[in-house]
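Same chain as my last thread, 125 residues:
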Amino acid sequence: MPLVSLKNTITFAISVRDRHASADWYSAKLGFELTHHIDEAGWSEMRTNVEGVTLGLGEQAEPVPGNCVPVFEVADIASARGALEADGVAFDGATETVEGMVSTATFYDPDRNALMLAQDLTGGN
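reply #2:
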């Protein structure tokens, strides 16, 4: 039995220099649909053609190519994080929260690949 119960969605978060330009590119080249821009968080999301899979665009002054972080949605980030930490999983800092939007926590697999947990705080899920 797994330590954490994941929802049936996944977001692939990538670093980009200009979220708006990148959203236009992904729309034109791959047919992804812009879900929303959250300018105050430097974040945009696009619906892919794969059900339950979202592309997240995180704006960075100097993006790091190849920096893709799978983001797994959970119902309760505190309990999910607690279960993983109790089993020795390493996390990168504290859980971060954008009030009324999302809480996220970055953790690592045994090879130090970054993964992230996210809890939707919008009340939509």
